[in-house]
Amino acid sequence: MSLPLDRLLSRDHARISEAGRTITLLHGHKTERAALLLHGLTASPTQWIDVANALYAQGWNVVATRLPRHGYADRLTDALAGLTGDELACRSDEALDAVRDLGDRISVVGFSVGGMLALRLAQQNALDSVIAIAPFFGWAWLPIALQPLAMRAVLACANRHVWWDVRLRENLMPAHGYPRVATHAVANAFALGALLRESAKREAPAAKRIVVVLNQREGAVHNGAARGLIDAWSSRGGNARIHLLTGLPLSHDIIEPLAQPALSGRVFNEIMEIITE
């Protein structure tokens, strides 16, 4: 393995669960195509297990990296409270460095906050393709113009851990993710995405092909903000487009096979076609 990949894997210390660790599916040599997979907030690389296995079976080298402060065996850890935008940016940069020598053509695929990070890499790097699924640039229920003010208010208040599901609380599955999210972690991820959206107004992306996959009935993240980013890039000559998934229920987590297997199964082939195009 390369030094950048060794360094990335060394981040998985003793407190990280087996299911929370960075996944590497490698053929032992450089392949034509290689993929970096970026998971969502409070999830882990296991979120990508079906996609990773399918790409590997098609001859790709695959790395699904663990984002900082994620994947702890203690699902009620407070580690996420300290998550910053700089940490997210640095880890995604580091993970891309680890993948660069694994394939002639490099693709980055991300979901939710991982989707936002994938698009940030698309702005700065001449990647073969970048696929962002339901990228996080703010909440669906709040007008995008009000979100910066709301996120600043969140950061001005005490950092809190909020249950994703107040009924299930710590019993929320899958077990490789956290059942709570830290409010400051959300606000810091939003701030990093906001910087990208501003940058897109000034510069075309470096990536050769960008596809943002949206659920028409998205339940959590702001589809309009993602569309605005793509419009900005397209106006500057970037090869960037929206792929709209229709006929799905109101939902955000459309790729997690262990959370919603029926839903992820419905979109799996369509997403694989986009990734491997």
Please, could you describe this protein's structure?
With 277 residues, the protein is of the alpha/beta class. The protein has a single domain, classed as 3-Layer(aba) Sandwich (Rossmann fold), CATH 3.40.50. Helices cover 36% and strands 17% of the residues. Strands 1-3-2-4-5-8-9 form a 7-stranded mixed beta sheet, sandwiched between helices. A two-stranded antiparallel ribbon has the order 6-7. Helix 3 packs across helix 4 and helix 4 packs parallel to helix 6.
Shape: globular
The tally of helices reads 8
Poorly predicted runs: none
Q: Output the structural class.
A: alpha/beta
Order of neighbouring strands in the sheet with most strands: 1-3-2-4-5-8-9
Distance between the termini: 27 Å
Q: How many distinct domains?
A: 1
CATH homology superfamily name: Alpha/Beta hydrolase fold, catalytic domain
Map the helices and strands.
Layout: H1 3-9, E1 23-25, E2 31-38, H2 49-57, E3 61-65, H3 85-99, E4 103-111, H4 113-124, E5 129-133, H5 147-156, E6 161-163, E7 180-182, H6 183-200, E8 210-215, H7 223-235, E9 240-245, H8 261-276
Parallel strand pairs: 2-3, 2-4, 4-5, 5-8, 8-9
Antiparallel strand pairs: 1-3, 6-7
Helix pairs in contact: 1-3, 3-4, 3-6, 4-6, 5-6
